[in-house]
């Protein structure tokens, strides 16, 4: 059964129900913690009563700097929302690790960004080096992936679309809320990955709700494709795509055809004028809640709850 680990300013904790037991480790980074699994096991088996989880201020369980890589359009429902038809070629992009923030930290909208969007994603935390050229089969996943985290690939859509700029639009500080838990998996837990259900709500309204069965490129294949050109190390993070339900959706086909005839500046002005009427983009005061778990809670990554604020 998976073991949930929490990080605070005081160190690492193993979560047991509504209480947490400190891990006796000198590890300060995620990679160092993963190398000290014996200490995690000792805390999990400890007879200590522990501390109420509610009294702990959780930080991101993925420490930085690290590599943060993300898959693009990797759920069938998101592909439909985005207007894709036919086969979708696998694609990756990088995010700055400076965008990683805690599971209760505010998502801060830069003053020049008008269309702020959410994307719940399952994060894979690497537990072993993935050299370039590695081929990962399904049974090999436990050899490379140590655990799972909730992530939110927050996106400045006006920057992303007008500049075709993924790196900037998804890399502002606080644009990758991560945690609260790092679920360290046992080999048998990997057979349950497709049962994981991703749910994201804004102000209590459910926006995204899909299982990993909706994925196009699943984790083993994704790591194989990524390893064609990118190595990963313990503690690095791979975001595996988001399901449908984001604020951004492709315009109707007829509108898209008309837009293709317009100069780019005119097309984007018209598009964002229509997007301004879309109430689903994030605004200051909104609260984004995200959960990822199997139905039986054998794997449960906790609840991420992030307010939205404007930059000052």
Automatic annotation (TrEMBL):
Family annotation (InterPro entries): FAH, Fumarylacetoacetase-like_C, Fumarylacetoacetase_C_sf
Superkingdom of source: Bacteria
Under the heading Gene3D superfamilies, the entry gives:
Fumarylacetoacetase-like, C-terminal domain (3.90.850.10)
Tell me a GO biological process for this protein: small molecule metabolic process
Listed A to Z, the keywords are: Hydrolase, Metal-binding
- Pfam families (UniProt xref): FAA_hydrolase (PF01557)
Domain annotation Fumarylacetoacetase-like C-terminal: ranges: 68-308
Record flagged with keyword Hydrolase: yes
Molecular function GO terms recorded: hydrolase activity; metal ion binding
What family does the Swiss-Prot or TrEMBL record give for this protein? Belongs to the FAH family.
Record's protein name? Fumarylacetoacetate hydrolase family protein
Look up and give the organism this protein is from: Streptomyces sp. R39
């Amino acid at each position: 059964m998976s073991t949930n680990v929490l990080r605070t300013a005081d160190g690492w904790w193993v979560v047991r129900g509504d209480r947490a037991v400190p891990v006796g480790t000198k590890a300060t980074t995620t990679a160092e913690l993963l190398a000290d699994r014996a200490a995690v096991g000792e805390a999990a088996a400890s007879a200590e009563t522990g501390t109420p989880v509610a009294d702990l201020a959780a930080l991101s369980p993925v420490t930085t700097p690290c590599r943060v890589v993300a898959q693009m359009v990797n759920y069938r429902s998101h592909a439909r929302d985005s207007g894709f038809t036919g086969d979708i070629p696998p694609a990756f992009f990088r995010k700055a690790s400076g965008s990683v923030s805690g599971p209760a930290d505010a998502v801060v909208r830069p003053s020049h960004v008008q269309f702020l969007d959410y994307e719940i994603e399952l994060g894979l935390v690497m537990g072993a080096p993935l050299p370039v050229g590695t081929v990962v089969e399904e049974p090999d996943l436990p050899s490379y992936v140590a655990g799972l985290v909730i992530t939110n690939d927050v996106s400045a859509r006006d920057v992303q679309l007008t500049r075709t700029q993924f790196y900037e639009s998804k890399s502002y500080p606080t644009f990758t809320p991560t945690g609260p838990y790092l679920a360290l998996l046992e080999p048998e837990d990997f057979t349950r990955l497709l049962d994981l259900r991703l749910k994201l709500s804004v102000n209590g309204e459910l926006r995204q709700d899909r299982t990993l069965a909706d994925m196009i490129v699943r984790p083993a294949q994704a790591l194989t494709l990524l390893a064609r050109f990118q190595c990963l190390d313990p503690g690095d993070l791979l975001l595996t795509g988001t399901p449908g339900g984001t604020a951004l959706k492709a315009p109707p086909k007829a509108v898209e055809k008309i837009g293709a005839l317009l100069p780019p500046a005119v097309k984007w002005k018209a598009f964002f004028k229509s997007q301004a009427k879309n109430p689903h983009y994030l605004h200051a005061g909104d609260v984004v809640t995200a959960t990822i778990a199997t139905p039986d809670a054998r794997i449960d990554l906790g609840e991420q709850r992030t307010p939205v604020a404007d930059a000052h």
